[in-house]
Amino acid sequence: MKQLFTHIVLAGFLMIGSSSALASPEAETLIRDNTNEVLEALKADSSQIHALVNDIVLPNFDFVRMSKLVLGKNWRRATDDQKTRFADEFRGLLVRTYSSALVEAAGKVRNIDYSSKDKKKKGPPQTMVYTKVYQRGKPKPIEANYDMYYHDGKWKVYNVTVGGVSLVTNYRTEFANDIKKMGVEGLINKIKNQNTK
């Protein structure tokens, strides 16, 4: 899972020096500005990485939608309180994992090629952003695809697929096994305990 997140960070939030063709100028500006802000802050003080990820990177993700996709049928079975607490703890899990991956990934990117294609679906505008990340010392690029949709005046990420592995599907499998053993409440407590370590 840590390697998956390292690839996600490399693909999505270290896009300095690349020209892009995102589906919307707002999405491009969002990624570029956040990237610059995080990298500049990391240069000054990498000990604040958790706060940086929480405040700058993860607001670009729709955690309610991701939580719903990750829990699948178990989302409908959860109480409103459990849904809220799960989404909060899931966000905390991603903050921890993303933070370590971001520190590890910083400085490894040589070049990034990316493109996008709008999805023709009913509802809010959606796009898929395709990226190829070239790292120093590695001949083959990492391919990452971002599912994004336009929500409340902003582009939001609701899934990332790296090397054919979907973040949502990966967690859905893991969490479904946990729920079978300990229920939704047990899963929430497990993630909460991991987040407090």
Topology:
Layout lengths: L1 H11 L12 H20 L4 H9 L5 H9 L1 H5 L2 H26 L3 E11 L6 E10 L6 E10 L2 E9 L2 E2 H30 L1
By secondary-structure content and strand pairing, the structural class works out as alpha+beta
Range of strand content: 15-25%
Distance between the first and last residues' Cα: 18 Å
The shape is: globular
**Biggest sheet features:** 5 strands, antiparallel
3D structure, described in words:
The protein is of the alpha+beta class and 197 residues long. It is built from seven helices and five strands; from the N terminus they run ααααααβββββα. It has helices at 2-12, 25-44, 49-57, 63-71, 73-77, 80-105, 167-196, and strands at residues 109-119, 126-135, 142-151, 154-162, 165-166. A hairpin with a 2-residue loop joins β4 (154-162) and β5. The chain is globular, with a radius of gyration of 17 Å. Residues 11-23 have low confidence and may be disordered.
